[in-house]
Amino acid sequence: KTEEIAQERQKQLESLGISLQSSGIKVGDNKCFLVNLNADLALNELLVYYLKEHTLIGSDNSQDIQLCGLGILPEHCIIDITGDGQVMLTPQKNTRTFVNGTAVVGPTQLHHGDR
């Protein structure tokens, strides 16, 4: 039963362009995505969130990416992919949003490796 569940999960991931490899994951070329690594090493879940041209992020189930936790508002921020391929994060009003440990108060360009 466990093996069947794992195979079904892999099929679903592959349908999204995500391939599980022995050394990790492989995502589709030319796709923008966020990776969420759990800070607790005992929890080895690796979550990959593909970005759309306009991606809503927050705690509400209406958001494209739903995050839970203290300080995550129902509508927390928006990530847009511009026509020239820039990835821009815009925090909503009264949210605590950080990029690389620095508070973000307006539209901010994201780069590969940002946290």
From TrEMBL:
Residues 55-115 form the FHA domain. This is FHA domain-containing protein. GO terms for molecular function: cell adhesion molecule binding. The lineage of its organism: Eukaryota, Metazoa, Chordata, Craniata, Vertebrata. One of its GO terms (biological process) is regulation of protein localization. Signal peptide: none annotated. GO terms for cellular component: adherens junction. SUPFAM superfamilies: SMAD/FHA domain (SSF49879). InterPro entries: Afadin, FHA_dom, SMAD_FHA_dom_sf.
